[in-house]
Write a structure and sequence with these properties.
Distance between the termini: 90 Å
Number of strands: 4
Oligomer: single chain
Number of domains: 2
Mean pLDDT: 90
Low-confidence stretches: none
Radius of gyration: 24 Å
Number of helices: 7
Helix content: 40-55%
Length: about 200
């Protein structure tokens, strides 16, 4: 009786072991190895480091820049104060919500107070679905040019050309939208300011 039970259970146990070995160990290890060789930056979180090699952020996660000397990111609803990478979330407010209308109106008012004129791009006054969108439209970045240039004592044309240089085009010209990564743009802005101060 016991022999028959062992004979009946053995294939199941062996199959469970093999499936666990292949799908739980070999496959993940293989994919991780390929990713580390083919796309090491992306595989390790697209981390951005300072000049000393210390990580200061990820190109995939928005950070809250509030100083007038930096480009400001898209508003965030992630976490209590926004930009919380451990609490990615949207506001979940309905399009007709008064709270949503009030929040957008306040952000438009703040943008006007900073000197922005004309149409305000939606990505400057609305949160993304994740609350951690690291990118802005070039138009949203250009609207902040005057404030940033004035705060840093830079020529507006230089700041505008920096935005143009940092603008990423759609893949194959059709996939995605034109965008600027705010963290990378601000890092280049620091470099531009340092170069200008050195002259």
């Amino acid at each position: 009786m016991l022999t028959e039970l062992i004979r009946a259970v053995r294939p199941t146990v062996v199959l469970l072991f093999l499936v666990t070995l292949v799908t739980g160990l070999l496959y993940p290890a293989t994919i991780t190895g390929i990713a580390q060789v083919a796309l090491p930056v992306q595989a390790n979180g697209s981390l951005i480091s300072d000049t000393k090699g210390n990580p200061i952020g990820s190109a995939l996660i928005a950070q809250n820049f509030t100083s007038p000397t930096y480009f400001h990111p898209r508003p965030s609803a992630a976490g209590k104060d926004g930009y919380d990478a451990s609490a990615s979330a949207a506001t979940n407010l309905a399009p007709g919500s008064k709270d949503l209308r009030d929040a957008i109106a306040k952000r438009v008012s703040d943008a006007r107070a900073e000197g922005m004129t004309g149409d305000i791009p939606a990505d400057l006054v609305t949160t993304s679905a994740s609350g951690l969108d690291p990118d802005l439209s070039p138009e949203a970045a250009f609207l902040q040019t005057s404030r940033v240039a004035k705060a840093r004592g830079l020529d507006v044309a230089k700041v505008r050309s920096l935005i143009t240089a940092q603008t990423e085009e759609p893949i194959l010209g059709i996939i995605g939208e034109r965008h600027v990564n705010v963290l990378l743009l601000n890092r280049q802005l620091d470099t531009l300011s340092a170069t200008t101060r050195g002259k």
